[in-house]
Specification:
The chain is built from eight helices and no strands. With 159 residues, the chain is mainly alpha-helical.
C-alpha cells in the first residue's frame, strides 16, 4: 500500500537530523558555526562542564526523536494517533519558533538595530538564514506529510 506523505516525512527527517547533527557536534566540544547561534552559546561552550554537555545531549536526542519518530511511525502501518498529535504540536512549535526568530533576525539585519552593533552579527545571520529557516522547513515538511497522509491514516490503518 502506498503511504502518501512519506516524501515529506523524509524531508522533515533530513532537516531535523541536520539540526541534530549540529547539536551533536557541539555536544562533543566542536565550535564551528557556534557563533551563529549566539555569543551565549560560545560562552557556554567555553565554560564547558557536565551540565552543559548533558543539556546539549538532551537537545540532540530530542531533535533526533522529533526527526525520526514521525517518519518511522508512518513507514509501518498503523501510524499511531499519539505520534500524529505530538507531531502536530511539533509543527506548531517549529514553525512559530523558527518563523519568529527568522523574521526578527531579518528585521534586525534590515534595520541595523542594536543587536547588529553589539557583536551579534554572526548570530543574526545564522538565525536569519540557517537555523530558524531550517526549523521552518522542518515544520512545514512535517505538516505537509501529516496532511498528505491524513486520508490514508483515517482509512482504518491507524491505531
Amino acid at each position: 500500500m502506498t503511504r502518501p506523505g512519506i516524501p515529506f516525512f523524509v524531508g522533515a527527517a533530513v532537516a531535523g537530523l541536520a539540526h541534530a547533527a549540529a547539536s551533536l557536534y557541539w555536544t562533543l566540544g566542536g565550535t564551528w558555526l557556534l557563533d551563529t547561534v549566539g555569543a551565549f552559546a560560545v560562552r557556554m561552550q567555553e565554560e564547558g562542564g557536565l551540565a552543559i554537555r548533558a543539556m546539549l545531549a538532551g537537545i540532540t536526542v530530542m531533535k533526533i526523536a522529533g526527526a525520526l519518530v514521525p517518519l518511522v511511525d508512518h513507514l509501518r502501518p498503523p501510524a499511531h494517533r499519539w505520534v500524529r498529535v505530538v507531531s502536530w504540536l511539533g509543527v506548531a512549535v517549529l514553525v512559530a519558533w523558527g518563523g519568529m526568530g527568522m523574521l526578527g533576525s531579518w528585521y534586525s539585519l534590515a534595520t541595523g538595530t542594536a543587536l547588529v552593533t553589539s557583536g551579534e552579527q554572526a548570530a543574526l545571520v545564522g538565525h536569519a538564514f540557517l537555523w530558524d529557516p531550517l526549523f521552518v522547513v522542518w515544520g512545514v515538511l512535517l505538516g505537509v506529510g501529516l496532511l498528505r497522509s491524513r486520508g490514508w491514516w483515517r482509512a482504518g490503518v491507524a491505531s
